[in-house]
């Protein structure tokens, strides 16, 4: 199922995953492209007042209480049989990319689980405490379900150990809102795009976990709705100098996804997807959704934007090659390419943005 041009080594993603230690090392990585663990200002979170959007907030919490996915993350007897029958036929190269995808995904889901749990333990605000408890529940299910698939290959992550040993990054609450809102919404767009593709082409479904993506991504969508409501309840977060931060996080999330996805070309090829078109489809969906809360958006279809992301990927590939070279020359090359990456990111950041009024209706439905 791999691309006919696939080689044994992907220079953009050169580290093989052959053992549980390799998987743990990958999960602990804190590079620009890897999922991070976060902490924040709990006292500031405790002061959030959602009374301006009380009706929408209570309706959302009622949805969480209904827990329509309570029985979804259960593996069927056919799951393991399908893994053995179908996944056993994939190439070693595709296997590596899929394992990398699973490790990145479980780390990202578990990151949310830890953050939301720490917030709910450290606040007394009943609105925020209830929300964080529900989202912790959801993310715990997601992380555990993905990790079970890693265990099928003998490389399951020790999640409690990962919580103790992975470095944490401090983000102010507003940065948590911007970044996590986008992470949840782009997660929805990614999962639903894959699900719809494999729904149309079931012969391309090389692992059963993709069957779970439709209902799964609705959890991600609802989590994003929660942060949208929090931001709409605090209008100052969506105007003035904060628009510069929104612009930064939009670009950072899109650029990170683009570069990371292009390190896994065989994963998309196996699904019948082109990495470029998949990413820009996801960007278009996420941009359309994000208009519910962000008064600016990026013109992701602009040729200069596309060219800039492609250059960032080439730069990341060159940085990986320089790391592999090691020594003084390797470090100098890494520094030079890092400067080139920063300059490319800055040019993308300075591109004109699209502006629009926020809708009166704060919430949107997962209609893709």
Describe the fold and architecture:
- The chain is mainly α.
- The chain has a domain at 20-238.
- 65% of the residues lie in helices and 3% in strands.
- The protein is built from 14 helices and four strands.
- It has helices spanning 20-28, 42-46, 54-66, 77-86, 92-122, 126-152, 159-165, 173-200, 213-232, 242-261, 265-270, 275-290, 303-325, 327-349, and strands spanning 37-39, 168-170, 296-297, 354-355.
- Helix 5 packs antiparallel against helix 6 (126-152) and helix 8 packs parallel to helix 10.
- The longest helix is centred in the first third of the chain and has 31 residues, at 92-122.
- The model is unreliable at 1-9 (pLDDT under 50).
């Amino acid at each position: 199922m791999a691309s006919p041009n696939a080689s044994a080594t992907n220079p953009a993603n050169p580290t093989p995953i052959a053992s549980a230690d390799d998987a743990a090392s990958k999960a602990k990585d804190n590079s620009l492209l890897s999922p991070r663990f976060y902490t924040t200002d709990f006292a500031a979170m405790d002061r959030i007042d959602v009374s301006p959007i009380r009706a929408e907030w209570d309706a959302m919490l009622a949805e969480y209480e209904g827990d329509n996915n309570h029985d979804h993350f259960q593996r069927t007897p056919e799951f393991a049989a399908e893994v053995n029958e179908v996944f056993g036929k994939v190439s070693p190269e595709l296997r590596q990319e899929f394992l990398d995808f699973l490790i990145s995904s479980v780390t990202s889901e578990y990151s949310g689980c830890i953050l939301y749990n720490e917030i709910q333990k450290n606040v007394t605000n009943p609105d925020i405490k209830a929300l964080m408890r529900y989202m912790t529940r959801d993310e715990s299910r997601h992380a555990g379900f993905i990790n079970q698939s890693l265990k099928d290959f003998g490389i399951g992550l020790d999640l409690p150990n990962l919580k103790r040993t992975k470095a944490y990054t401090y983000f102010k609450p507003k940065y948590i809102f911007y970044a996590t809102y986008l992470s949840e919404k782009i997660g929805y767009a990614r999962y639903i795009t894959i699900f719809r593709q494999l729904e149309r082409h079931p012969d391309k479904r090389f692992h059963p976990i993709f069957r779970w993506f439709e209902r799964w991504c609705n959890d991600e969508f609802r989590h994003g709705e929660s942060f949208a409501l929090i931001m709409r309840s605090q209008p100052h977060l969506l105007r003035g100098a904060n628009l510069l931060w929104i612009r930064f996080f939009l670009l950072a999330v899109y650029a990170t996804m683009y570069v990371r996805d292009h390190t896994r070309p065989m994963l998309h090829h196996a699904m019948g997807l082109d990495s470029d078109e998949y990413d820009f489809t996801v960007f278009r969906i996420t941009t359309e959704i994000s208009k519910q809360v962000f008064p600016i958006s990026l013109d992701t279809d602009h040729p200069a934007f596309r060219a800039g992301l492609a250059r960032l990927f080439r730069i990341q590939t060159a940085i990986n090659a320089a790391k592999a070279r090691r020594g003084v020359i390797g470090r100098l090359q890494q520094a030079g390419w890092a400067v080139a990456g920063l300059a490319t990111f800055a040019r993308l950041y300075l591109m004109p943005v699209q502006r629009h009024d926020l809708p009166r209706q704060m919430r949107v439905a997962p209609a893709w």
